[in-house]
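Record 1 of the preview.
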Amino acid sequence: MSDSIRFLSKRRGYDPQQVDNRIEALDKEINDLRRQSEFYRRQALLQAKQLEQIRTAYQDLIDDLQLKEQAAQKLSRIAMKEASRIIDAAQVNADVIVKDALVSARGLLLDATRISKDAQGNRARIFEKLNQLTETIKDFTIEPLPKAEEED
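->
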């Protein structure tokens, strides 16, 4: 306490010096407690301000995370659509390739069938020619050559 309280001296009262000393000690203790209270009040204000900053930063992180999750979901949807489009295009391409392969295979099969029929016809003609040649060879005779006189 900045205002010192002094007791009047009376005959049978307290020792004024002791009372003054005690009051000074209590006054000092009150001042110390006030300073300490002010310090803690400032600390509490500072910590409240820090807490508010942390809350703001936390909310910013939550908001950012939500935005990133939304972006990831959107990107996932886009990727799924693109993958589906690619699969559909691949299916169409595969169908075209299979159709072309079937057309080519059919053409090759027709060619093979034609070649097989031609080969059978050629085989029959070749057998006929061989039979004719065999008959000709059977009838073919080689006349012996006259013996030449030997010279001595």
